[in-house]
Design goal:
Elements: H1 12-41, H2 46-50, E1 65-72, E2 77-85, H3 95-111, E3 119-120, E4 123-124, H4 145-150, H5 155-164, H6 183-197, H7 208-216
Antiparallel strand pairs: 1-2, 3-4
Helix pairs in contact: 3-6, 5-6
């Protein structure tokens, strides 16, 4: 009886060793993933933008650049593309001023409870349009209905005008209420929206560039 072989599957020592190895491996993997995630979501710097270094979350000064959204065949989905310098509200913003403006926009978004109706980066409600790539929406671009309706010459000016006086520009049966947004808060919100459109969200929302292409081709149902 003492020499009887015991199956490894019923050996308590085997399961203890296995549990220890699995726990150790899972711990190391969790630590690695945590550091990788921190690196992925850490905001880039102004120097990164100047040197063409791609960051998943660009610096606040990305508001000084042209932003596009194009299909990346290698990755299989759309990605933000940071282009040439572009004035924002008529000027180029310093890193300090850009960060302050972005902070104002974020605080205003929170104070006005935008996510009660809108979705931002996958979070929020679905009563009103998703705002993750709102800056790139063709309706706000030159020749788009929103820019034409507000009578402004740039995306940022059109957006700021609408945010301050939404009741003057009915765009949908679900009209945006007048939230008492000031001119400075509107600038901050638009900066927040532009910065958000530059974040690499792994293709979310999906097929956005296709919708833009359809809109430009004259398919009004694509919007």
């Amino acid at each position: 009886m003492a020499n009887k072989k015991v199956s490894v599957w019923t050996d308590i020592q085997f399961w203890r060793r296995s549990a220890a190895w699995v726990t150790g491996f899972a711990t190391i993997l969790l630590i690695w993933l945590s550091f990788d995630t921190i690196g992925q979501i850490t905001m880039g710097t102004n120097a990164d933008l100047k040197n063409g270094v791609d960051k998943r979350v660009p610096a606040a000064t990305v508001i000084n650049y042209h932003i596009d959204y194009k299909m990346n065949k290698k990755r299989g989905h759309e990605v933000p593309v940071i282009g040439e310098k572009q004035l924002f509200f008529g000027k180029e913003w310093s890193p300090k001023d850009a960060e302050a403006l972005l902070r104002l926009g974020k605080l205003t978004e929170q104070a006005k409870n935008c996510m009660d109706c809108h979705t931002l980066l996958g979070n929020g409600a679905y009563y009103a349009p998703d705002l993750t790539k709102a800056w790139l929406d063709p309706a706000w671009q030159k020749g788009g209905p929103m820019q034409g309706m507000t009578g402004k010459n740039t995306v940022e000016e059109a957006m700021a005008e609408f945010l301050q006086h939404p009741s003057q520009y009915p765009t949908h049966a679900r009209m945006m209420p007048n939230l008492g947004i000031t001119a400075e808060e509107a600038k901050g919100l638009v900066a927040f929206l532009k910065h958000m459109s530059s974040i690499d969200t792994n293709g979310f929302p999906r097929n956005f560039s296709k919708t833009v292409a359809q809109f430009k081709a004259g398919d009004t149902n694509a919007h």
